[in-house]
Amino acid sequence: MVNESRSYKVLRYVFLIGAVIFVIVPILPLIFMAFKTGSEYSSTSVLVPPQNWFNFYNFKYAIRVGNLGKALINTGIILAVSLSVQLLFTTMVSYVLHRFEFTGKRVVFTLFLLTMFIPVVTTQTIVFQIIYKLGLVNKMLSVILLYSGVNIVGIFIMLNQLNAIPKELDESALIDGASYFRIYASIILPNMKPACITLLIINGIGYYNDFYIPNLYLRKEVQTFTVALHKFFGNTATPFEIVAAAILLGIVPIMIVFIFLQKHIFYGLAGAVKS
Questions:
Q1: Number of domains, the chain
Q2: DSSP character for 118?
Q3: How far apart, in whole angstroms, are the C-alpha atoms of residue 217 and residue 82?
Q4: How far apart (Å, rounded) are the C-alpha atoms in residues 14 and 12?
Q5: Longest CA–CA separation in the chain, Å
Q6: pLDDT-derived band of residue 3, with 50, 70 and 90 as boundaries?
Q7: Which DSSP state fits 100?
Q8: Does 183 fall in a domain?
Q9: Dihedral sign of CA atoms 10, 11, 12, 18 in order
Q10: Is 244 part of a structural domain of the chain?
């Protein structure tokens, strides 16, 4: 074990405390404002805590008038369906690319790799025409389809995890008469849980914060949280303490999910770096 000098320990804790303050300071005023009344917000500093921490009027107003409650439900449905489909397809594609040799394998992998260099915006004219012809504009299914695709980042994460699963397990199962699908369902998929959770968090946060796709394909009747929040915030008549409550409503769910799953994403990303 390496002995640390006293000055190094002090410097390390000073740096960590400074980093924590840097992250928390912008959030604290938001939390304070979300629980303040209109008069309290206009008469006190943003760094002064609210007098009543049980003032939930701002949250109720944001949910009722801004339709943020319905938007959160829509977002949850879109994420649950699209991420489930994406994880299923990504694990299957990665399993085939890692375990099997076939003609055109390198071509398939290269095509997936090339998608990293194609900006999403440049393809949306054609994609929108396809979605429009299918009659899916202003329907959650349009966003679900666009979010469900397999991407190269997910494949890299899954391939890294597959490197840690011995091929001998596959061979033993084949000798026992198991099919490839049975091997995938009973051996591969259960052992890929850390990689799946890593991809779930990375893409889940990205899709949760995405504004472009939902705003392009969905209308007022069906909105995700980011779109509803943007339109609610864009209303100049909306008091800022209510806007602060609306923003906090969007932060809390993703923060809770990350806290419960953070050890899995750290494990998955650490493995990806090592590989």
A1: 1
A2: S
A3: 15
A4: 5
A5: 76
A6: low
A7: -
A8: yes
A9: positive
A10: no
CA distance 202 to 151: 12
Higher pLDDT, 48 or 236: 48
Mean pLDDT, residues 219-243: 80
Residue 124 falls inside a structural domain = yes
pLDDT digits (tens, 9 = 90+) for 58-111: 888 888 887 888 888 999 999 999 999 999 999 999 999 888 888 888 898 888
Q: Any idea what the CATH number is for the domain that residue 265 is in?
A: 1.10.3720.10
Instruction: Evaluate whether 138 touches 219 at the Cβ level (below 8 Å).
Output: yes
The closest of 145, 144, 161, 146 to 196, measured between CA atoms, is 161
Both tokens assigned to 99: 């375990």
Residue with tokens 């939930």: 56
- For the ranges 15-29, 64-78, 80-94, 261-275, the lowest mean pLDDT is seen at 261-275
Q: What is the DSSP letter of 184?
A: I
Backbone φ and ψ for 48, nearest 5 degrees, come out as -90, 125
**How many angstroms from the chain centroid is the CA of residue 34?**
24
Q: What angle do CA 173, 179, 184 make, to 5 degrees?
A: 75
The span from the CA of 148 to the CA of 160, in Å, is 21
Please give the residue range of the domain that contains residue 152: 81-223+261-274
Tokens 């850390």 locate to: 194
Instruction: Specify burial of residue 274 (Cβ count, 10 A radius: 0-12, 13-18, 19+).
Output: exposed
Residue 209 lies in a domain: yes
Is residue 170 scored above 70 in pLDDT?
A: yes
Instruction: Find out whether 207 and 140 touch, Cβ atoms under 8 Å.
Output: no
Q: Where are the alpha helices (DSSP H) in the chain?
A: 6-24, 27-34, 38-43, 57-65, 68-99, 105-114, 120-133, 140-147, 152-163, 167-175, 180-183, 189-191, 193-209, 212-217, 225-233, 240-274
